[in-house]
Write a sequence for this structure.
């Protein structure tokens, strides 16, 4: 085979690879519409969306530099994911607040047990920052204390928020969550899930004559961090069977947790739909905007970032800061005023998310 034939074959392979990449990326754009119970592949494609979009942009740039029309193929695939793109990038003009308006500012933050520290530094910094921002309600996930930094100390530091719902002794074995508020909290309900250490907490924030139903959530964790080293060891071996088994185990674990999150999503969605009051649904959902969880919740609630956010949004500090997994959703009857995620390098691999809403 001559050089020109080899070159031609290589060129055809590049075109074919471009079309395969585009097809997979377009399929991934619809992954959030498919329940995990109906597909193993689609949720995995949804998880890969951020990487697929970057690869498509690089591919389009390479074809463009070569002055080839094939650059249009990955660009089409890229923009087929417009729903995902607008869930991580928004432009909104600042919204004016009226003196007579009623406003509530809420923050959600997976604090990772305050990093296990014993001095209370992170807790003090969080309290200082949130008070500076005028936050009315704090929703924490992975809220844990220790013998050197007990719950009483945490409550003293967070005394600006005088009303609190903190896990009780009967919540052992569950990753704890908590709510601190400047306003009274009523009708508290702790929600646990079968075969899961994750949980949710529902309560009503009573603001005089107005009431907001708050649902604080920490949905099923991915379990990737806990099992990553084991899978990496197996994938690093020369034993093909072990490598294949490690890949299957990883995919199986991810899919099992997709299924659990979907079930948990149905539970909190039901509470949101049947609420007699406007709803604020927040927390660490362990799901990116291409996920089934995100799409299902958006059927009845609004994503606060879409209604009031600006710029690029991520909440997970690692993974090249590509993942948005913490959210605040709200009822359509609440008006989003501001939504942002400050980059706080304190005790957690998450950033907090803060939103201000107007009660209409």
């Amino acid at each position: 085979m001559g050089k020109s034939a080899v070159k031609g074959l290589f060129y055809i392979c590049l075109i074919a690879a471009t079309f395969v990449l585009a097809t997979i990326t377009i399929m991934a754009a619809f992954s959030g519409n498919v329940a995990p119970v109906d597909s193993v592949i689609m949720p995995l494609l949804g998880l890969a969306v951020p990487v697929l979009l970057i690869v498509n942009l690089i591919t389009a740039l390479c074809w463009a530099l070569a002055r080839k029309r094939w650059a249009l193929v990955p660009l089409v695939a890229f923009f087929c994911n417009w729903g995902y793109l607008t869930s991580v990038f928004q432009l909104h003009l600042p919204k004016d607040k009226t003196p007579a308006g009623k406003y509530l500012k809420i923050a959600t933050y997976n604090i990772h047990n305050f990093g296990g520290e014993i001095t209370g530094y992170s807790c003090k910094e969080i309290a200082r920052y949130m008070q500076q921002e005028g936050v009315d309600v704090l929703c924490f996930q992975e809220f844990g204390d220790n013998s050197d930094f007990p719950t009483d100390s945490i409550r003293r530091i967070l005394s600006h928020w005088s009303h609190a719902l903190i896990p009780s002794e009967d919540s052992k074995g569950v990753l704890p969550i908590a709510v601190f508020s400047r306003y009274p909290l009523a009708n508290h309900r702790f929600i646990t899930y079968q075969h899961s250490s994750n949980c949710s907490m529902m309560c009503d924030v009573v603001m005089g004559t107005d009431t907001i139903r708050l649902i604080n959530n920490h949905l099923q964790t991915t379990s990737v961090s806990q099992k990553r080293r084991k899978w990496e060891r197996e994938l690093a071996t020369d034993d093909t069977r072990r490598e294949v088994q490690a890949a299957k185990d990883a995919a199986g674990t991810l899919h099992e947790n997709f299924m659990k999150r979907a079930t948990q999503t149905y539970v909190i969605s039901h509470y949101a739909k049947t609420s007699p009051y406007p709803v604020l649904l927040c927390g660490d959902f362990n799901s990116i905007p291409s996920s089934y969880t995100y799409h299902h919740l958006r059927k009845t609630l609004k994503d606060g970032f879409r209604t009031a956010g600006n710029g690029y949004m991520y909440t997970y500090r690692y993974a090249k800061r590509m993942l948005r997994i913490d959210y605040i959703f709200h009822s359509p009857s609440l008006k989003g005023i501001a939504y942002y995620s400050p980059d706080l390098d304190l005790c957690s691999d998450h950033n907090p998310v803060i939103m201000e809403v107007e009660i209409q």
